[in-house]
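User: I'm preparing a small set of examples for a lab meeting where we compare how different chains pack in three dimensions. I only have the primary sequence for this one, and I'd like the structure in token form so I can line it up with the others. Please keep the answer compact; I'll paste it straight into my notes.
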Amino acid sequence: MAPRHDGLEAALSGISGILVTPFDAEDRLAPARLRPVVDRAIGAGVHILVANGNTSEFYALSTAEAEAMVHAAAEQIDGRVPLLAGIGRALPDALALARASAVAGAAGLMVHQPPDPFVAPRGVVEYVRRIAEAGRGLPVVLYLRNDGIGLDAIADLCGLPEVVGVKWASPTPLRLAAAIRRADARITWVGGLAETWAPPLCAVGARGFTSGLINVWPAHSVAIHRALAAHDYPGAMTLIAQMAEFEALRAEEGNGTNVSVVKAALALLGNDCGHVRAPGAWPLSAVQQRRLAVLLGEWGLTGRAKAAE
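Assistant: Understood. Below is the structure token output for the 309-residue chain.
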């Protein structure tokens, strides 16, 4: 059996904050710009931080850049909360990144679901097994963006000794409930569709949820988690309604503004983390920028509601 990491597993029942990846004007990594984001999130009570997630533009980074970012995040977090390191892409790259993440001091590995068009369910099991082996005993969290590999393969993945959690990023709560019933009770299930989908996924057995909002307004994410932990679903839904416009903006252009809205918001807050790499949308349109600026003003985060005009 792989060693238990109780700190990580407890944190997975909280908020998994997905960190942005900062760039400078020459499109180089600018990790120092991330420090205020990290400090703000930890100060607000976010339970676990994730480098090289989708809000981190993982698929826009080279493997060397992803390695640099997990080292930078580990240094900035400095053990205050667990760090989960995203792992993925071609198997040789994934193995290299798993080894680098272990050296950096990550508390666990989050394995992205392979986007390859020719994915065999048993091939995914082997993919995760090899990454776990390269991770030097670190616990593994599966990141499932859909359940197309089937419940049998998901159960097999959950049977790997290193696997301690699953981030379920599919709007299918009944399938999630079925997957939970078939898995070992030791697995921690996490709602992987951020705050908006946290209530229905939590209702069937997920405990924590992922969040990109924590880069901008971590206190609000923590308030939503607190309400859900207290089974105050009406209170949680009221809080979620306050951020609905933010999530609607992120979902525009085929979800291509997902990270763009977060980075544009950070710039309006004076914490510029640079642009979003193609194929993401950058910059926001004038209409999108105005809507975002007004929203941040309504939240009380900035008085510059006219900054985008």
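A couple of notes for your slides: The chain has 14 helices and eight strands. The longest strand covers residues 163-168.

User: Perfect, thanks.
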